[in-house]
Design a protein that fits this description.
It contains three helices and seven strands. The protein is of the alpha+beta class. The strands form two sheets. The chain has a four-stranded antiparallel β-sheet with strand order 5-4-6-7, with no helix packed on it. The longest helix has 9 residues.
């Protein structure tokens, strides 16, 4: 994965997780947490749910902080890049639907669900 020049692998390992904050909270009412290398154009190796806004589509679907996102539509998160991830979660108009396969952070059970983009976000 790409990383800034002069940054050692040891330094990278000590960095916190990367929480996508370009648009604060996605159009589905949640933030996305992923591996730090994505920030510099590296491949997505894992993706999970960060903050979930009460009353949002993500909350209504039962998503919780720590739930892993496995598929977006029928595409593995390992096969999408940062631009596609940002578009899917942060740049779609209200009413857009997206299907996800998730894995519960506690029970490890898989779930298929559908989210609908809405305007329910954290206050600015």
């Amino acid at each position: 994965p790409a990383k800034p020049p002069g940054i050692s692998d040891e330094a990278i390992a000590q960095l916190p997780k990367f929480e996508v904050r370009e648009a604060a909270i996605s159009n589905f009412g949640m933030s996305i947490v992923t591996n730090r290398e994505v920030l510099w154009g590296g491949d997505i190796t894992w993706m999970s749910v960060g903050t979930v806004v009460p009353g949002s589509s993500a909350a209504v679907a039962g998503l919780k902080t720590g739930d892993r996102i496995v598929l977006i539509g029928d595409v593995s998160i390992l096969k999408i890049d940062r631009a596609a991830m940002l578009h899917t979660f942060f740049e779609v108009p209200v009413g857009t639907r997206v299907k996800l396969l998730t894995r519960d952070g506690k029970t490890r059970r898989f779930r298929q669900l559908e989210l609908v983009a809405n305007a329910k976000r954290l206050p600015s």
